[in-house]
Design goal:
mainly beta, Outer membrane phospholipase (ompla), Chain C
Length: 361
């Protein structure tokens, strides 16, 4: 999750204390004693409360199973890799309160015509909405102690959250998942959080749907009746690593931060019974195309705090450049026939990107 450094805040607080001490010494203790005493300010509910909007351009995104030429030929051209532009508008909220943190992220994603609506050649690019949330409760905060501050950890937290999406491409995914587990704040410079979570996903796949009540495609085995393409996957382990490191070695109050996120999902099954998969036809190839493998997502970016330069107004406007690598995207097996022969390379996304963020202050 996104956690900001408090180093700048502490430095400003220290400077104010030093200034107050100098004024008291210069003007004399009698002057300080004669000043009216103000009641202490109430502690705000949120110690950090940040909402922002972003825009990001990914010039070489992929969609597993969508072959090249999908914008001009129905079904695309088998054997050709497909990569396309994705333009992402994002609304993000992050807060820190007495006992923990909350993080909410909502993406509005527009593909270009090489990933067309409903897979129809010549249609406009598909549109996706993707939401994600994560919340934590810190054990140090809950216990009112530093019992979980050790040589290895700064804190340990209970973490939970979930994802949900919908997209109008040929696959028509409708993902929903929940996560719950522990987050370990590692005792390293900057912010380094490692989470061990239980992960449960439900999704949809139009390629598997059949029957008059769904796609109109008849099911090869009538005994199975209509099958909507809905899938329920196994409960699996998930690992998350989040890093935020201000690059202080570049400058005392550097405007550059390295942000990194890595997520690992272990194989989650097909989400469909083998009997239903075989009923779709295609035999062993259908089983191979739908069996999931370990999925690895990693995203690294350098973020530049633009207004810290010159006018010294940090934390308002940022720009960033980064690189995303997504192995076995959505758990797809890049060696399966669909992702190695029909739409090769689409199961692995590798793209640089750039973007900008504005924080509401």
């Amino acid at each position: 999750m996104k956690v900001r450094s408090f180093r700048g805040t502490k430095a400003r607080a220290a400077k104010l204390l030093v200034t107050a001490a100098v004024l008291a010494t210069t003007r004399g203790y009698g002057y300080a004693a004669d000043m009216p005493v103000k009641a202490p300010a109430a502690t705000p509910f949120f110690t950090v409360n940040d909402t922002s909007v972003s825009f990001t351009w990914y010039p070489s995104a992929t969609d597993p199973g969508v072959p090249g030429g999908s914008d001009v030929v129905p079904g695309g051209v088998a054997g050709e890799r497909n990569a396309f532009n994705k333009f992402v508008g994002t609304v993000t909220h992050f807060d820190v309160w007495k006992y923990g943190t909350n993080y909410f992220n909502l993406d509005f994603i527009q593909s270009d015509k090489r990933d067309p609506i409903e897979g129809v050649a010549g249609a406009n690019g598909a549109v996706e909405v993707y939401g994600l949330s994560r919340s934590t409760l810190g054990f140090n905060e809950l216990s009112g102690s530093k019992a979980f501050e050790t040589v290895i950890t700064k804190n340990v937290s209970f973490e939970w959250g979930g994802d949900a999406n919908t997209e109008n491409n040929g696959l028509a995914p409708e993902k929903k998942d929940i996560v719950v587990g522990l987050q370990f704040g590692l005792n390293l410079p900057g912010t380094v959080n490692f989470a061990v979570l239980a992960y449960k996903e439900w999704n949809h796949n139009n390629f598997l749907a059949c029957g008059a009540t769904t796609t109109g495609i008849p099911c090869p085995v009538a005994a199975f009746g209509a099958f909507t393409g809905d899938r329920e996957f196994h409960l699996i382990p998930r690992l998350e690593l989040q890093i935020s490191e201000p690059l202080y070695f570049l400058k005392t109050q550097t405007p550059v931060t390295w942000n990194s996120f890595t997520g690992v999902n272990f194989p989650k099954g097909t989400g469909v019974s083998n009997a239903n998969l075989l009923a779709m036809g295609g035999g062993a190839a259908v089983l191979a195309n739908n069996e999931t493998k370990t999925e690895v997502f990693t995203d690294n970016r350098l973020t530049f705090d633009m207004l810290r330069w010159g006018i010294n107004k940090p934390g308002i406007w940022e720009t960033y450049v980064g690189y995303r690598y997504w192995y076995n995207k959505f758990g797809t097996d890049h060696n399966a026939p669909l992702f190695s022969l029909i739409a090769p390379g689409t199961s692995i996304e590798s793209t640089a990107y750039l973007g900008t963020t504005y924080h509401f202050k």
